[in-house]
Design brief:
Blueprint lengths: L4 H7 L5 H14 L3 H7 L5 H12 L6 H5 L16 H7 L1 E7 L2 E6 L5 H11 L3 E5 L2 H12 L5 H11 L1 H11 L9 H6 L41 H8 L5 H12 L7 H11 L4 H8 L5 H15 L11 H18 L5
Length: about 350
């Protein structure tokens, strides 16, 4: 029987006992796989982790191509079981290809052997199992099932694999984000001015594996909120129909929070009406309000299709470093074209 990962690490002297115990404690608090916690606290690097996982599970390590270019496997119509995203999450496993009549399956540790054996039996197809760290299982689940990686795993993936490969992976496989209009804007929409045409969008997204040298394409800019509505919204702050909704809409569009006083908003608009709204989004990444940072990140992800390690709930220093990288890329890539 395969040993547990922690036992294998301790028995083989692959990681200090105190580091393994710290990772187990971290796993108890934050959840996820033990291998994720080990990587997060730098108990060991990726290469020895793959070897430890293989030793702990008695499963081979897959060829890197199976991870970087997974195949979306189609099962026969009327199959007894559907290997969909829900099954994949439950079993911590994802089909990545076929070879010699067998279904190749990437598995996380601990391996859900009973569930995998049951699926193989129900389908009448042999499974060839491979083991991989949780970050790679999650990345392949995103590629195969369009299930977004958790921000925690994206950050770790970028740290382990490299920021640029993960930016390309996210551009290739992350579902396109279409920010929804805040309810406040929906309520006020009938009086808002007609939207102006957005600037030409960046190139369409195209698939590229993490080791590809192709530039990461950007998503459509069509979902950008319309700053032409701002003068009307400032007027509505002085009216009784729904000033709270007007303020919420102003915050959503500008990524500023200047309160409910129309004069403050009017003064700000006088200074900034000729700004590109993208600049407001980048400024919003640094805002003291969590919700403004989160919505700014969401819109920029939708606009650029890029990932530079930013997440709205990171420590301030990490957020600012990632924001600077993201904004520098934007200026270099698109600033010259405007």
């Amino acid at each position: 029987m395969a040993s547990r990962l922690s036992d294998r690490l301790l028995a083989g002297g692959l990681a200090p006992g105190e580091m393994v115990r710290a990772a187990i404690a971290r796993q108890a608090v934050y959840g996820g796989a033990l291998d994720t916690a080990l990587l997060e606290i730098d108990a060991l690097t990726e290469a020895p982790l793959w070897k430890a996982l293989a030793a702990a599970t008695d499963l081979p390590v897959p060829d890197r191509a199976l991870c970087e270019s997974p195949e979306k496997v189609a099962l026969p119509a009327g199959a007894a079981i559907e290997l969909d995203g829900a099954w994949s999450s439950r079993c911590r496993a994802v089909p990545v290809g076929r070879k010699d009549g067998a279904l190749q399956v990437l598995c996380g540790e601990p391996v859900a052997r009973a569930e995998l054996d049951a699926a193989s039996s129900a389908l009448g197809i042999p499974f060839t199992l491979y083991v991989a760290p949780e970050i790679w299982v999650a990345a392949v689940q995103q590629a195969v099932f369009d299930r977004p990686m958790a921000p925690r795993l994206v950050r770790l993936f970028a740290r382990v694999v490299g920021a640029q490969p993960v930016r390309r992976w996210q551009a290739s496989y992350a579902p396109e984000i279409a920010p929804e209009l805040p309810a406040a804007i929906e309520r006020l929409a009938p009086r808002a001015p007609a939207p102006v045409s957005p600037p030409p969008p960046p190139p369409a997204r195209a698939a590229a594996p993490p080791n590809s040298s192709a530039p990461a394409p950007a998503a459509s800019a069509a979902a950008r909120l319309d700053k032409a509505a701002i003068p009307d919204l400032i007027e509505r702050l002085e009216m009784a129909d729904d000033p709270v909704a007007a303020q919420e809409a102003l915050v959503a569009i500008t990524k500023q929070d200047l309160g409910s006083r129309p004069k403050r908003w009017a003064a700000w608009w006088e200074r900034h009406q000729n700004d590109d709204r993208v600049d407001w989004l980048f400024e919003g990444l640094s805002h003291k309000t969590t919700e403004i940072r989160a919505t700014s990140e969401q819109e920029l992800r939708a606009l650029t299709g890029e990932y530079f390690g930013y997440h709205f709930d990171l420590p301030r220093r990490d957020r600012e470093a990632a924001r600077a990288r993201w904004q520098a890329w934007w200026s270099e890539t698109w600033g010259r074209a405007r």
